[in-house]
Every structure is written in structure tokens, then in C-alpha cells.
Design brief:
The structure is a homodimer of 311-residue chains.
Chain A: E1 8-9, H1 12-32, E2 38-44, H2 49-65, E3 68-74, H3 79-95, E4 102-104, H4 114-118, H5 132-139, H6 148-166, E5 183-187, H7 194-203, E6 207-211, H8 218-223, E7 227-230, E8 248-251, E9 255-258, E10 264-267, H9 272-275, E11 281-282, H10 289-309
Parallel strand pairs in A: 1-11, 2-3, 2-4, 5-6, 5-7, 7-8, 8-11
Antiparallel strand pairs in A: 9-10
Helix pairs in contact in A: 1-10, 6-7, 6-10
Chain lengths: 311, 311
């Protein structure tokens, strides 16, 4: 006998589709005011095919939303000049007044430090939120473009919040600001996801617990949480015993594993089927944070164009 | 009968004196290598006398360490031009190749947003660590100048760590990296202290709990902590019942209160006398984080000069 999950599913794919619709409207509004919405992406041709495929998908998605897409392909002459060529292009786009949104496809060639290049992207054009000034602005509560994955998690929590409010749930009652006083435990403290999410949650006046693989008493901590963010990259790390009944669980983990049938599939950090019987809200992998992260990049592109126009 | 405190005192004044001695040696070393150590401070003359007094003290302290001190006084013509004059000077110092360390005395005149000015300080010269890029670099684990108060707390914890190691305490045993796996609870999530400290502690692989005034179950959280950082600005907030026996307690609170005798005095967030009977290590107020914060500014000045020289 199978027990049905009791948790509500945080459907990242559906939510991303909603966001795209709303972004399309915002793009039209910018154009009607005489502005433009464009993404300038830098792609280094270095033998890695995945970035090129990603860029092609991106071009199509942008086209669907009415966002212009310009791909700047760089083919470095050799390893010794690669940094200069890539950094030079990024600086040029950063200072070009016709450019409002810049992103850098990874990976970069061997020997080129992505961080050194990313910090050259003008903060107000940095739609991936990877310039350290942008996470710093978030720490200090200033308007900023947030890292896309962390922003995706926040928007998913926002959706849960609005839904609970609409349904009369006291946790998200009228007059209760979003996340204020909620205890959020972030499992995993990586630079790309764990730490930026912790910072974003602090900004919302949540009680934030940042855990890593050295954390003692992890189970007690997560079991005390209203919100569990799993961002450790360890399949099956979060089990039902670690979750308070009714809690919100967002799974940021993405790991490719080979099943007993020999086929590869993508799994998250949460033992989904079992944990869904305890949690109140849960995001699946795939179909959770992933599609929302892609949508958040577009969100930042539109945001950058709007700010430029003074929206 | 008075019970004697069992906690060891984290003597910020004594520790700051040690730091100053070591900094004097580092200044000499920079000079011997043909470099220079200088602090360029901007002071806006705007009727507030406290900044001027602070600047005079600073000039004297710098002199004692062999650090050149240049004070740039600005007297804005009127309110409408104040931002331009201050920001222009900061930009000039940021781009001046002979300048290695810039700080901006507060307060600024009414209507001038300090944050907007601080973000113009070149990150590598920003010895107060107030440019958002610097806290961002800390999030991402890159070399950076940290905000002085947060850095002061970290250095005090480092001193406790080294002392424990020297005394054979297993918590800080050989091969155990500083703070890794320690549970640190930060009470208070302000932008100047609480949030930056939380970020610095995450960087050290601690389990970090960021609390604010909306936090439920604060007492249980602090009682589970190996390290409690009190940074709420609420006198007497942290009491002995909230502290695990033997824990490290650092008090960042600074509040002026009037005693029953009518005299003003400075108190911290921790009920010191009582909590010292439970904690293992505790910092007093005054004489704790305060003097270390002043020393950390000088530390950053020397650090900026050394990095410039390629130390």
C-alpha cells in the first residue's frame, strides 16, 4: 500500500512559466516607453559543447519574451592571452552605454579565474548576480541583482507565502512580513548557493541557520526549522526524520546518478517520496529550483532594463 | 558572599595593544622594502565635533605606529553640493596611485547617503570594509578588507582559539581548523555588525545562527551555542540562563545608560557579572570589542599597504 504524499508540491516549472508570462508583459511595457531589453552574453569557444547548447536555448527563450539576445563569441588565440581577451570584452560591455545586461557563460578555459572576470561586470548589468558587490548590496539591504539560484529559492518561498496567505494560514497572515521570524535552516554553505541564500534570508528578517558538513546536531536543527533549504549536493541527505511536520522544504541539490536499471537520472538532496509525507510544502528535482533559476536570469535581465529606464 | 567569575576575560584593550606592537613591526618592514604606509581620511566639517576629536586621536595613533596620516577636510558650500564634493574627493583618492588606504569619517551632512559614497571607495583601499564589494568578497572567500568591528570579533575568537590550543584544549586541538564545526549564535542582525559577522563566521566553516528581535526560541538557540556574539544593542539581553557552561561570549553591544547614581556609563548587551560565572570566556564592555575595532582599522591600513607592495 502506498501512502499518498501530504505535502503540497512547489512546482518550479509551472511557477517559472507564470514568471515568463509576467516578464513578457514587462518587456512590452519597457518597449512602449521607448526602452529596450537586451541580454549580452559572452561565450568562450573552448571545446565545451554544453555552454553552446545552453546559449542556443537561451537565445530562443529570450526571443519568445521579446528580449534581444546578442552572443559574443570569443576564440582565444592561446592560453596566455585568454584572460585578457575575455576580461577585455567584459569590460567593454560593462562600459558600453547601449548594454544593460551582461552574462558570462561558463566554463572558461583552463587557467582563467571566473571570479576575476565576473567582478569586472558592472554591478547594475550583472544579471547573474555574480559580482561580489551585488551580494554585498544584499547584505546591506540595497537594491541589487541577486544570484539566480538563491533568488529562485526566495521566489519559491514567496509563492508558498502568498498561497498560504490566500488560504487564510495564520503563519502568513495579513500584516506578517514575508519570512520575518521564520526559522530557516540552510543545509550546505557553498559559495554559489548556500551562502547567498543565507544572506537573502537574513535580509528578510528570518532566523537563519547555516549548516555545512562539519555541523553537529544537524538533525535537531533541521527538525526545528519552519523552512529547510537543502543545498549540499548530497543525494538523499534530507530524510523525513529531519523535517518538522508541515515545514517547507526546498531542494536545491542537483546530482546525476545511475539507477539500478543503468539509466542516468537527476536527483536532489531530499529523499522526496518519504519526506513529502511529512513536509507541508516540498519542491521536486527535477522541476523545482532548476527551471526557476533559468527564469530568474530573465527576471534580472528585465529588472536591469527597467532600472535603467527609471521604472 | 560574592562568587568569583569563572570565565576567562577576553581583554580587548590588552589584545589591541599587542596588535599595535605587531603592526608597528609590519610598518617598519614595509618601509624597509621601500614602500609606504599611509591613511587618507576624509572629514566633512559639518558642525559635529566628535568626528574631529576622533580624527585627532587617529592621527596620534597612526603617528605612534609610523603610519602617515593625511586628513582631507571638506567644507561643503551648501547642502545641494555636499554629495558632489564628498563623492568627488573620495573618487579622486580612490584613483590616486599614491593613496593606499581611504576612510570616510561619519556623520555626513544631512541628505548625503553614506552608503552611496562608501561604495565609491576602491575596494583594495577600503580599510573600513564598507564597500559592498568587500563583504561580497568575504562571502565568496576571496581576499578582502573586512568591516572593522566584525573583524575585531573574529580576531578575538582567534585569540581564544590559539590560547585554548596552547593549553591543550581538545576543542582547538592540532589539526582542527579555526571555528570549523563550532556552533556560533549571533544575536542581532544589523548591517554594520550582525550580518557581516555572520558572513565571516560562515567563511570559517562554523555553523552560524543569525538571530534578530523576531527570533522565536532565542534562549534555546544561544544555550546550544559554543560561541555567542551579542550584537543587538540591548543592555542586559544575554543572561546566564542563555549561555552554555564554558561557552565563548563576545559582547559587541555599546549603549550609554544613566546609572542610579546619575552618572552615565557604557554597557554591553551581556549581563557581565552574572554571565561570567557560566561562560568559559567573555569579553567586557568597555575594554572588549571597542579597542580591538580601532586596532583593526590600523590592521587594514597596514594590510592594504602590504598587498600593494606584493607582500
Amino acid at each position: 500500500m502506498t501512502t499518498l504524499p501530504t505535502a503540497r508540491i512547489i512546482d518550479g516549472a509551472a511557477l517559472a512559466a507564470q514568471y515568463r508570462l509576467a516578464l513578457g508583459d514587462r518587456v512590452r511595457a519597457v518597449r512602449e516607453r521607448g526602452g529596450r531589453v537586451r541580454l549580452d552574453a559572452v561565450l568562450v569557444e573552448a571545446g565545451d559543447n554544453s555552454a553552446r547548447v545552453y546559449a542556443e536555448n537561451q537565445a530562443r527563450t529570450c526571443g519568445e519574451l521579446g528580449i534581444e539576445y546578442r552572443l559574443h563569441r570569443i576564440t582565444p588565440d592561446d592560453e596566455s592571452t585568454a584572460y585578457d581577451e575575455i576580461a577585455g570584452r567584459v569590460l567593454l560591455l560593462s562600459s558600453d552605454e547601449s548594454v544593460s545586461a551582461v552574462m558570462l557563460h561558463l566554463p572558461l578555459p583552463h587557467g582563467v579565474d571566473a571570479y576575476r572576470v565576473q567582478r569586472l561586470i558592472a554591478p547594475e548589468k550583472d544579471v547573474e548576480g555574480v559580482n561580489p558587490a551585488n551580494i554585498g548590496n544584499i547584505v546591506y539591504g540595497r537594491s541589487s541583482l541577486a544570484p539566480c539560484t538563491a533568488l529562485a529559492v526566495l521566489k519559491m518561498l514567496e509563492w508558498v507565502w502568498h498561497t498560504r496567505r490566500a488560504e487564510g494560514d495564520a503563519v502568513a497572515g495579513e500584516g506578517v512580513p514575508f519570512l520575518r521570524g521564520q526559522r530557516a535552516v540552510v543545509v550546505g554553505a557553498g559559495d554559489v548557493v548556500g551562502k547567498p541564500i543565507a544572506v537573502l534570508l537574513m535580509r528578510q528578517e528570518a532566523t537563519v541557520v547555516s549548516c555545512n558538513k562539519w555541523t553537529a546536531g544537524l538533525e535537531d536543527l533541521t527538525r526545528s526549522a519552519d523552512i529547510v533549504i537543502a543545498a549540499a549536493g548530497v543525494p538523499g541527505l534530507v530524510t523525513p526524520e529531519m523535517v518538522k511536520p508541515g515545514a517547507v522544504v526546498v531542494d536545491v541539490g542537483v546530482t546525476r546518478i545511475k539507477g539500478q536499471d543503468g539509466k542516468s537520472r537527476t536527483v536532489g538532496d531530499v529523499a522526496f517520496a518519504q519526506t513529502a509525507r511529512v513536509a507541508g510544502w516540498i519542491s521536486p528535482v527535477p522541476g523545482g529550483v532548476g527551471p526557476m533559476t533559468v527564469a530568474m536570469l530573465l527576471h534580472n535581465v528585465v529588472e536591469a532594463a527597467e532600472r535603467r529606464l527609471g521604472a
